[in-house]
Write a structure and sequence with these properties.
InterPro entries: Bact_solute-bd_prot1 (IPR050490), SBP (IPR006059). The protein is an alpha/beta fold. The chain is built from 17 helices and eleven strands. Strands 1, 2, 3, 6, 7, 8, 9, 10 and 11 form a nine-stranded mixed β-sheet that branches. Strands 4-5 form a two-stranded antiparallel ribbon.
Length: 427
């Protein structure tokens, strides 16, 4: 796969346009009547949007200065590219959902409005209840530039009916026997695929493109995309080579995962197990198949957890920046944070209990919430993120493309990834 001018343009846009967006700003809505706010979000899920709209309607009842609040779903697979294109085209939203992988660029650019003062002065907000650990990615020089809206660990949703049909042990049974690890998980997935014709295991949103979702796999080997200081490539390290060799064999020899070009949806009943977050639980149908939710399998380095984070920030140049910040404070106050917890695990320490989360997550058992969500947030590492993520991400994806062939030389491919990205990391 060759990187064209458009791809390089995305990287330049994210770095350059955000810097331009940082200049100017302020709320000019006072001269133009009530504000109409727009917030970009990654999800078009009806349950998610229904809750967002209910909270927005409640806010507008007591804020006549806000005429409308709309939520603009952008496709997950190219969310950041689309958002950056909107910014570059002069059509920036007032508020934006920001993924963890682009957080360093957005936060450091100055494109986002500092939120500390607004949140702290909002009556009843309880700013000190927010876990300091969840704030780190969204802070720069002591200021908070996005609220950590969702700190969501990855777990494994399981189609127990499909596993039983294939005569395989369920993850719950393997956990009870102390055997829930990637070796057994991949063996069960391959056997189930062979017996049923369905897919064994899918790492959701990977699809041989979203490589950072593979961190939910390779972290079990102690592998990292790059060093803690972000300066050294980790793809050629022995831990990564071992992890990706295991994955490659599982795809092309064990048939545990569907190969490139094959799509399968767990929530449609076509997959035995999928790695994803609890926000996807809303896709489960009440009259569908039997299911379970369990932690990620243990890797050679033992038990581990990977967390996906998303922040919500206010564009500094928005003509409605002050009004947008006010709505953000309402959207994330203790009451609404508890409501949103059914999809998006909150950063509020008081709400990270099985009892509290269970009130808005009736489909999930307290044990599932404790083991996957609460323990995962406590012990998890965040998915890879780095300044200049747009260009880095494209280079990694291009570098990994040769890996998705049956005869690939795994180590040579991973060495090639480091050759591509080391100059970017060293900047």
């Amino acid at each position: 796969m060759k990187l064209g001018k458009a791809v390089h343009g995305v990287a330049a846009t994210l770095a350059g346009v955000l810097a331009l967006t940082a200049c100017g700003g302020g709320d000019e809505a006072g001269d133009k009547g009530p504000a109409s706010l727009r917030m970009t979000v990654w999800s078009a899920n009806e349950a998610h949007l229904k809750l967002f709209n209910e909270i927005a309607d409640e806010y507008r009842k007591t804020h006549p200065d806000v005429a409308a609040i709309t939520f603009d779903p952008l496709p997950f697979e190219n969310y950041t590219t689309t958002l950056t294109t909107q910014i570059a085209g002069g059509n920036a939203p007032d508020l934006a959902w920001v993924f963890e992988n682009s957080a360093p660029d957005f936060v450091a650019s100055g494109a986002l409005l500092p939120l500390d003062e607004t949140l702290k002065k909002t009556e009843g907000y309880q700013y000190d209840d927010i876990s300091p650990a969840t704030l780190k990615l969204w802070q720069n020089e002591g200021k908070l530039y996005a609220y950590p809206f969702s700190t969501s660990p990855f777990g494994v949703f399981v189609n127990t009916d499909l596993l039983k049909k294939a005569g395989q042990k369920t993850p719950a049974e393997l956990i009870a026997a102390g055997q829930w690890n990637w070796d057994t998980a991949l063996t069960v997935a391959g056997a189930t695929a062979g017996a049923t014709g369905k897919a064994g295991l899918v790492i959701r949103d990977f699809d041989y493109k979203g490589w950072d979702n593979l961190s939910t796999f390779w972290t079990g080997w102690g592998a990292q995309a790059w060093s803690e200081d972000g300066k050294s490539c980790g793809f050629a390290a022995p831990e990564m080579v071992e992890a990706m060799t295991t994955l490659h064999k599982a795809i092309f020899a064990g048939k545990a995962l569907p190969g490139p070009g094959t799509t399968a949806d767990f929530f449609a009943g076509d997959v035995a197990m999928t790695v994803t977050q609890i926000s996807r639980a809303s896709l489960l149908k009440p009259d569908g198949f039997g299911w379970d939710l369990v932690p990620l399998p243990a890797g050679p380095k033992g038990n581990y957890s990977v967390v996906g984070q998303a922040g919500v920030g206010v564009m500094k140049k928005s003509k409605n920046a002050d009004a947008a910040a006010g709505f953000l404070a309402f959207l994330t106050n203790p009451t609404n944070s508890a409501k949103l917890a059914q999809f998006f695990p909150p950063p509020r320490q008081s709400q990270l209990t099985a009892e509290t989360l269970g009130k808005t997550n009736p489909t999930l058992k307290p044990e599932q919430l404790q083991k996957v969500v609460i323990d995962g947030i406590t012990n998890g590492v965040v998915k890879p993120s780095h300044a200049g993520q747009a260009e880095l991400s494209q280079q990694v994806r291009a570098g990994l493309d040769p890996l998705w062939k049956a005869d690939a030389d795994v180590k040579a491919v991973l060495d090639g990834v480091c050759t591509k990205i080391q100059p970017l990391l060293a900047k």
